[in-house]
Amino acid sequence: MSISGYKLKPRGMTGGWKPVGDQPVLGGPLGTCFDCHVMREDGIYKIWFSWRPARCIAYAESPDGIHWDNPRVVLTAVTGSDWEGHEVNRPTIVKKDGLYHMWYTGQMFAKETNPARSCIGYAVSEDGIHWKRREKPVMEPHLAWEKITVMCPHVLWEDELQCYRMWYSAGRMHEADAIGIAVSKDGITWEKDADNPIFTPNPEKYWEIGKVEACFVCPKRNGWYHMFYLGMDGDLIACVGLARSRDGKTDWQRHPSNPIIAGFDGSWDWSGICKASVLETENGYMLWYNGCNRRFEEIGLAVHDGFDLGFPKEGEEGVDERGDGTGLGGVNYYVRDCIARY
Amino acid sequence: MVYDINGYKPIPTGTTGGWERLADEAPVIGGAMGTIFDCYVIREEGIFKMWFSWRPAQAIMYTTSPDGLTWELPTVALLRDLNSDWQCEEVSRPTLVKKDGIYHMWYTGHGLENGIPTTSIGYAVSSDGIHWERPYPNPVMKGEIPWEKRMIWCPHVIYEPEEKVYKMWYSGGAQPGSIECQAIGYATSSDGIHWQRDLRNPIFEANNDCQWEMYKVSASYVWKRDGWYYMTYLGSDSDMRAQNGLARSRDGITNWERHPSNPIVAGTEGKWDCQGICKLTVIEVEDGYMGWYNGFNNTIEEMGVVKHTGFDLGFDQPDERGGRKYYPKINRVD
After folding, report:
1. Strand partners, A131
2. What ipTM score was computed for the predicted complex, to two decimals?
3. Per CATH, is B2-324 categorized as 2.115.10.20?
4. Which of A124, A159, A208, A338 has the most CB atoms less than 10 A away?
5. A74 vs B58, B73, B80: nearest CB
6. B245: β partners
7. pLDDT band at residue A294, thresholds of 50, 70 and 90?
């Protein structure tokens, strides 16, 4: 099927993903709650999330991942800092050797005295609530493709490699353009991969023709790394897609029914879907994401029964549940900065 | 001594009356957290507990401290209600009474009613001070008397066990777009929910003879000791600059006597609170008083601490600032 004169905007979920309820699980009177990281320990769900109006990282607990206790502030911006003076957000957490390790984004917005810039910071904690952080960032933008931003860290401890591996996003600040990787023995000194960026927008698919960023990578399972990532279309509308790779770096195979999570028309998340945080449970996956509407970003929950995420056999293309979405349309010049020329 | 200064307007700075700023170089809460304002503090089992208004989150937050100076990062205590007309925009300015093991909170709800900004007083209860229930969907007080206009805020409530009555001092008379309320009113209640206004309201008004508080007074904090009701309050000067003063009354309603050295806490030159002082919350400690106030600078409001050694607040002392004879006109900014 070929449609002339339309660009195709995906709606709803595919690949076996289903929303839980018809309301966000965190947001509302809190205002915009976005990019989060969720863990489960001793039967308690723990969420660290970015709280936009407060420009900080907050923490809450839940018995079911749906009903959350009053959040508390756990990391704030630092007055006078030249890299995290205005906002901290987008946490990723690794628990290792009894300590919580957090990497997060520290941001400066353009003011009279400083240009806009995002860096990645690092903090450690014994309880996940009281954090001790490093004064300096552990990663800064310094390569051409990274422009002014490194952000959205996602970190795994890789037992096989005996190192931490970070997937991060870089480029512009609103939003980042592509995904890179880096490795570190201690979580502090990071070596960026020479082949970065390792994941870039797909010019063949309208929904991710603009940007890709803000990924969440599941620990390797059955020989695959699964990566949930945020794609942006030519109008910078966001959806979440899924891809897999044998080594977490090369030969990414995109899911045939991408994006797997798109906004539902008429629902609270109609305007777009941002970063996913995924948790493997006894019988499948839980996925928290920030959905947008005109008012806020809020955090919603989706679930997937079973562990078969719906990729075709290796080497096959698979069938797109949405039908042939080969997109028309192009990237509309980014109105927020006039540097953009795709 | 009375200064008659021709061609200058005297703006009070610094503290008087034995009050000493403990947070001189930096506020105890603020900085990158943005505007922290009107708070309420209690001490239980040696722990200082604070509920404060947090402008960025439009919420009331809760935090604890071992010494009143070093505070934990806060937890959300009360959020606005997006489905309400009277508290959909923000909740702020808490006051608490602990009675029969339950925390009772009165607070300010900011809303939009028929497109017009309003502020009203709401009520909530909690067993731990963190998780709050709002048993009544409506405000317990709304601005409805002419002098209150549509906006009342800054409730301060105490419970008098002998009289079995709750007493509230509140501020009224702000208007949409206005920065502060105009005057202080008084109301009583047997249950904390149904309030009876005093017919003499407003019971405390701006003092036209005094430049620092000639425009408005609001944001009172009241406590009882040795047969007096003491009240700290925010005074707005002819330029809408805020400082904090102290007054006392035998019945908490009439014959208020202002402190001779008012304002007792004014902005300190060159410091983080240089632009003025808003609400001052005071508690008794072993050797005197501790107070927390929101001071402001050119950017935000932040939280500072003052200490007063001893319980004699100095009402019988001469004016430390020297008498000031100056009768400016109010420069209306709202």
Report:
1. A125
2. 0.91
3. yes
4. A208
5. B73
6. B233
7. confident
